[in-house]
C-alpha cells in the first residue's frame, strides 16, 4: 500500500504531493501546468526537507498529474505583475530561491528519476535535468529552453546545468537555438535515458528507482560524490559545477 508521507498544501489546494512506498518517494506536481513562482518553489523545497530527514536506501520519482504538461516554465503573469497575483509569493526572492532548489535536487543524497509526461519548458526543463535519470513520454511533449524565444538571456548557473547534463553536440542547439526536443530526439541526443508510452512511463520510472535505491544505503556517501561531480571545484572539469553556481547564483550574475 502507498502511505502518504507528507501532503503539501498552499493557498487551499495541493500543489506538491509526496508519498512513500517502501524505499521509493513519489513527488507529484499538481498545479495544472506547474508553472514556477516563489510559492511553488517553497512547497517543493518542503518536500525535499522531508526526504532529507530519512536515512537508508531510497530513490525519488518526480512526475506531474497533468497529462499534457510536466512543467510549463515560469509563471510569466506573476513575474510581470506580481502585485496582481499575490498567491505566487515574493517576486524579489524568486530567482535565488529557485536556483538554490535546483542545486539541492542535483545533489540530493538519493537517486532521482524524472518521469516527463508532457511539455517541459524553461524552468521545467531545468527541473528535469536536475534529476539523475530522465524518462520521457514517447508520443507527446517537448523539452525546450525557450529563453531566446522570450527575449531573455540564460543565466550562467543555468548554462552550467545544461552544459553538464546535455552532450556537447546538442548543447548549442538547446541553449542558443531553442530546439524543441521530442522524446525520441532527446533520447537519441542523450538528454534522456529512455522513452515510453503515457501508460508505461510510471512503471519505467519505478523499475529504475527500485534498481538504484540501494545505492543510497549510505546517503552521506551518495550525496558526497554528487558534490564532487557538480559542486564547488567539480571533479569533472576542475571548475565550479552547476550545483555550486545555482546555490550561489548572485556570484555569477
Question: What is this entry, summarized?
Answer:
The chain is an alpha/beta fold and 253 residues long. The chain has helices at 38-53, 76-80, 94-106, 123-129, 147-150, 156-165, 168-175, 183-189, 201-212, 219-230, 242-247, and strands at residues 3-10, 13-21, 24-29, 59-64, 69-71, 112-116, 119-121, 133-137, 143-144, 194-196.
The number of distinct structural domains comes to 1
CATH architectural group: Alpha-Beta Complex
User: Quick check: average pLDDT?
Assistant: 91
Helix content: 25-40%
Low-pLDDT regions: 6-12
CATH fold-level topology = 2-enoyl-CoA Hydratase, Chain A, domain 1
Using the CA coordinates, give the radius of gyration.
17 Å
Strand order of the biggest β-sheet: 1-2-3-4-6-8-10
Strand content: 15-25%
Provide a descriptive summary of the structure in words.
α1 packs parallel to α3. The longest helix has 16 residues, at 38-53. The protein is an alpha/beta fold and 253 residues long. The protein has one domain (3-252): 2-enoyl-CoA Hydratase, Chain A, domain 1 (Alpha-Beta Complex). The strands form two sheets. It has a seven-stranded mixed β-sheet with strand order 1-2-3-4-6-8-10, sandwiched between helices. The protein has a three-stranded parallel β-sheet with strand order 5-7-9. β1 and β2 (13-21) form a beta hairpin. The protein has eleven helices and ten strands.
Amino acid at each position: 500500500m502507498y502511505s502518504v508521507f507528507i501532503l503539501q498544501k498552499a493557498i487551499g489546494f495541493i500543489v506538491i504531493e509526496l508519498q512513500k512506498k517502501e524505499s521509493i518517494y513519489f513527488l507529484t506536481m499538481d498545479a495544472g501546468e506547474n508553472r514556477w513562482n516563489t510559492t511553488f518553489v517553497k512547497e517543493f523545497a518542503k518536500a525535499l526537507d522531508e526526504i532529507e530527514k530519512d536515512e537508508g536506501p531510497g530513490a525519488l520519482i518526480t512526475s506531474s498529474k497533468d497529462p499534457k504538461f510536466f512543467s510549463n516554465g515560469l509563471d510569466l503573469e506573476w513575474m510581470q505583475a506580481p502585485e496582481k497575483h499575490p498567491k505566487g509569493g515574493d517576486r524579489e526572492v524568486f530567482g535565488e530561491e529557485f536556483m538554490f532548489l535546483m542545486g539541492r535536487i542535483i545533489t540530493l543524497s538519493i537517486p532521482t528519476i524524472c518521469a516527463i509526461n508532457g511539455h517541459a519548458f524553461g524552468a521545467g526543463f531545468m527541473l528535469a535535468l536536475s534529476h539523475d535519470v530522465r524518462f520521457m513520454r514517447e508520443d507527446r511533449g517537448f523539452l525546450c529552453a525557450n529563453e531566446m524565444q522570450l527575449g531573455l538571456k540564460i543565466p550562467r548557473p543555468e548554462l552550467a546545468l545544461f552544459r553538464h547534463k546535455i552532450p556537447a553536440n546538442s548543447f548549442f542547439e538547446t541553449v542558443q537555438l531553442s530546439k524543441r526536443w521530442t522524446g525520441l530526439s532527446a533520447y537519441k541526443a542523450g538528454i534522456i535515458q529512455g522513452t515510453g508510452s503515457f501508460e508505461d512511463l510510471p512503471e519505467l520510472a519505478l523499475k529504475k528507482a527500485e534498481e538504484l535505491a540501494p545505492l543510497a544505503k549510505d546517503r552521506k556517501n551518495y550525496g558526497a560524490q554528487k558534490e564532487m561531480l557538480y559542486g564547488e571545484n567539480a571533479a569533472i572539469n576542475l571548475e565550479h559545477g552547476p550545483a555550486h553556481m545555482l546555490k550561489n547564483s548572485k556570484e555569477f550574475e
